[in-house]
Design a protein that fits this description.
With 356 residues, this protein is α+β, with helices and mostly antiparallel strands. The protein is 52% helix and 8% strand. The protein contains 16 helices and six strands. Strands 4-5-1-6 form a four-stranded mixed β-sheet, with no helix packed on it. Strands 2-3 form a two-stranded antiparallel sheet. It is globular, with a radius of gyration of 22 Å.
Length: 356
Amino acid sequence: MTERRPDYYTRFHCLGGACPDTCCRDWSVVPDEAALADYASAPSPLRERIAQNLVTDEDGDVCFRLDEQGMCALLTPDGLCPIQRDWGEEHLCAHCAAYPRFIEEYGCLTESSLAVSCPEAARLLRSAPRFTLVETDDGKNDPPFDGVDPELLAGLEHGRAQVLALLDGVGGLWTKFRSILTYAETLQSCIDGRKYGKMTACTPTLALPEDNPQRQASAIWLLNALAGLDPLRPDWPALLKDRALRLSRLSPAEYIALCVDYAQANPECERQFTNLACYFVFRHWHKAVNDDMLYGRATFACAAVSALYHLALFQPGEEATLWSRFSREVEHDENNLDELVWALSGPGRDALAALF
C-alpha cells in the first residue's frame, strides 16, 4: 500500500488557546461511542460538566452543545478544552483528536493532509518553500476498495501527478490554470466515454501567456456565487459581497494597479497561491473516483485559489485567515462543496473559463 502526505504534515502542533480562530466553534461535534463510554469515567466535576453539555440533535445524534456565540459549551475562557487540559489528550473524541488531519483511503492508497480550515495548517502551507509530497510504500500490492475502478484510479493518479508537476514548473499561475482546465476537459471526456485507459496517455500542455480583460468581471461573478452558498457565519457572505462590489467599482487600469500593488506588498504571493492550488488538487482530485466529476473538481481548485487571491488583494498579510475561513465555509460543508462543483461544471463553466 502507498501512503502520501505533505512534507509539513508532521510539523503541525495545535496552538491551543493562542489559536486566532478556535476549531471548537460552529461545528456540532458528535463523539464516537468509545468516547461517550469514556466520559462516564471522567473525574468529577468534569464528568458532570460533560454530561450537562451533551445534547441530542435533530438527527438523533448525541453531540456537544454550542452556546449563543456558536462556541462549544465546554470551551474555557482561555480557549482550551477541559477534557484535554484537565484529563488528557488521549480522552478526546475521535473527531477532536484527528482535526485538522484528514485521511482519504482507496484500499491500495492512503493519503493524509491538514485541512486549511485550521489557521496553523494554513500558515504551514503558506510558508512552505513548495508543496512537496512524502511517499512510502510497504511493498504490498493491495487492491483498491470494492467499488473503486482500478483503471479509473490509475488514470486519476496519472492526471493529478501531471497537474502537480505543471503547478511546480515555470509559468504564471493564471496560465497554468488555463492549461489545467483544458487538460481536465480532455480527461473528463475519457471518463465520460469510460475509456479510462486513455487517461494515462494524456499530458497537459502549458498554455501561452496572454492578457485577460475578463478576469476582473469573472472574479466578481465568482465572489457573488460564493456569497450565495449557505453560510456558516453570517459575516462571510457580507465580506464576499463587499469585495465583489469594491472590485466592480475599479476601472480596468485601477484593477491592474491593485494587482501590481499586492504583488509588491507580498512578493511571495505566486508561490503561496501555487501551494494552495496544489493543496486543493491533492485533496479533491481523486474524489472523482466516486462520481466521475473530475472537471468540476479541477475547476473548483482553480476557482478557490482565484477567489482567495481576489479577497487578499484588499487584505494583504491576511491570506492564512482567508484560506481558513473559505475552507470552513466550503470544504467542510458537503452541500456547499457539491453545489459549487456542480455550478462550475455546468452553469458557471463559461464564466469560470473567462476568469482564466
